[in-house]
Amino acid sequence: MNKFTKYFFICSFILYILFIISLIVLQITLPNDLKFSFSLIGKVPLCNRQKDRAPIIGNFVFPLCWRCFSILISYSLSFLIFNIKKIKAFINKNKIIYLIIVILLLSLPMILDGGLEYLFNIESTNIRRIITGSCFGISISIMSIRLIYFLFDKSLSKSKNEKD
């Protein structure tokens, strides 16, 4: 296992712990009708509790809606793809401003779709949720790779010191 993969797993574990802590805090503060119950698993998605917005196999409803599911899948797949040396080098060598622009452009469709749905009550389709969630997952993956490279790659700090 290379250093990059090791740091990815460490960062993922830390984010997972923070996510669990935030869920516990959220469960304490939510009203009773919105609190999580294990009886809901398989009946409604846990993110938005709307059965028509989740993948369904037989009578089982996935615990995530289409948007969250596509974010998770696209993040995982694109992280594996971007971990190929040539692609990772391309991401890490680009100026940060270009990556920020790419990340914003990939994140913008989901922000607009979710915002229109929330603010103006415009119904989104499952296909649009999948597409916007996938774009967002790819943008998060690019951001994660660049952040891990910046925080943990020792050769980056050595090359900065040699230039000075």
Protein described:
With 164 residues, this protein is mainly α. It has one domain (3-156). The chain has helices at 3-29, 66-82, 85-93, 96-120, 126-152, 154-163; strands spanning 56-57, 60-61. A two-stranded antiparallel sheet has the order 1-2. Strand 1 and strand 2 form a beta hairpin. The longest helix has 27 residues, at 3-29. The radius of gyration is 19 Å and the shape is globular. The protein starts with a helix and ends with a helix. The model has no long low-confidence stretch (mean pLDDT 80).
Low-pLDDT runs? none
Number of strands: 2
Order of helices and strands: HEEHHHHH
N-to-C CA distance: 32 Å
What's the overall average pLDDT, rounded? 80
The secondary-structure class comes to mainly alpha
Number of domains: 1
User: Roughly how much helix do the residues carry, as a percent range?
Assistant: over 70%
**Rg for CA atoms:** 19 Å
Q: How many helices in DSSP terms?
A: 6
Categorize the overall geometry: globular
Strand content: under 5%
| Largest sheet, spatial ordering of strands | 1-2
Largest sheet: 2 strands, antiparallel
